[in-house]
Amino acid sequence: MFTFLPRGYREDTISEYRKRVLTVFVALCIVLAILSIALIMPTFVSLHFQRNQALDEKTRTENIQAGSVDAAAGAEITKLNERLVAVSEGADEKTMIALFERVLINDRSGISITAIGASRKDGSMSIRGIANTRETLVAFSQSLQGEPSFVSVDLPVSSLAKNRDISFAITIMLKQ
Predict the structure, then answer these.
(1) Cβ-contact 109, 136 below 8 angstroms
(2) CB atoms within 10 A of CB 147
(3) Does the chain have fewer CB atoms within 10 Å around its N or its C terminus?
(4) Domain boundary among 31, 63, 95
(5) CA geometry: angle at 24 spanning 23 and 28, to 5°?
(6) Residue 52 φ then ψ, to 5°
(7) Quick count: other Cβ atoms within 10 Å of Cβ 102?
(8) pLDDT for residue 30
């Protein structure tokens, strides 16, 4: 290659050219950075507000869920109370069954029980049946009177009118 410049001028010119290219490059980078900042700033502000809204929404949701937890706990307590009532009623039924068993355990020779029932409201139990003799009916009635869970045992006098094959209806008042 031919150069018409003396060596010193040529090196100065190349050096000056490199400085100008570097200056243009740095200026373009600075302009690009300023332009980027200018274009990113609205996005940053928008995202900042969206973030704050999301945090507010999260706080509201947590507060609602805390209320829901209280409501859920209340609902769970209601369910447990319902189960407790069911279990209590079941316990009463077992008590009634135990009372029926106490009636049936007593000496029943010569006694045929045809019906047995109980009422929780009245606190009473009724027994219907047929006794072979008056003596067996009286003995059965006395054995029921000896039960500690019975307050009173009512055997109508009209049931004692016959000597044999006596239809009877005994009313028992239960301890509460």
Answers:
(1) yes
(2) 17
(3) N
(4) 95
(5) 115
(6) -60, -40
(7) 16
(8) 96
CB 136 within 8 Å of CB 162: no
Q: What CATH number is given to the structural domain containing 164?
A: 3.30.1360.100
Check pLDDT > 80 for residue 63. Answer: no
Domain boundary among 95, 115, 149: 95
The whole-number pLDDT of residue 26 equals 97
What per-residue confidence (pLDDT) applies to 156?
85
45 and 17 share a domain? yes
| Structural domain includes residue 101 | no
User: What are 20-24's contacts with CB under 8 Å, separation 24+?
Assistant: none
- In terms of residue numbers, what domain contains 33? 1-95
Number of domains in the chain: 2
